[in-house]
Each structure stands twice: as C-alpha cells, then as structure tokens.
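[Q] Does anyone have a clean structure-token version of this?
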Amino acid sequence: MAYVDGFVVPVPKKNVEAYCEFSRKMGAIWREYGALSYIEAVGDDVPEGKVTSFPLSVKVEPEELVVFAWITYESRAHRDAVNAKVMADPRMKMPEESKTIFDAKRMIYGGFEVRVEV
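[A] Here you go.
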C-alpha cells in the first residue's frame, strides 16, 4: 500500500521564490533516493477557520502564506529506506540562509498510510 509524508509550513510572502528554489533542491534529493513524487503547493485559497484550519495549524502571520506538501512512496518500509539515505546525504545539511526562508519550528508533518485511492 502506498505511503505519504505530508507537511504544512508557513512561509513569508517575500520568501516564496527562495523557498521554492530551496524545495526544488530538497525534492531532487528525495527523488534521487527513490521517492515517487515530491510536491509543494503554495496556498492561494486557504481560509482561516475559527476552530481549525491550515493557517491556525502553523500559526500563520499576516505576511505569510501556507505551504502544503507531500512526498509519496511505495510503502512505509520504502519511505523509511529513502529517508535514511536522504538524512545521511551531506547535501541535507541546512544552509544557514535556509533558516531565514521559513520557520521550521511551526512546521507540522507526519506519515500516512494510503487507504483509499480512486
């Protein structure tokens, strides 16, 4: 059964292009090690809810956008093997400038087993 890592992160509007460039580099590494896909989408219709919402989940600030992203794998075992290789790759060392592109402390993420695919 397929497996998905998903995450949501706030990104300052002024940094969206820099974030996308950073993401292209990260995505290339995941794909190199076997991820089936690596997708990051910048929100343009993401309402703030009263109880829950994507903006509330990452405490989005007025000058930020929400990025919703996912990486797909063949299975959880495949994900674990790919991620082990990715994390051991020296290119994954976060460059100092990336720390100012987005606030990783407010990122939410998790792994999900696909149960329905139509």
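[Q] Thanks! Anything notable?
[A] The helical segments are 16-32, 54-57, 76-88.
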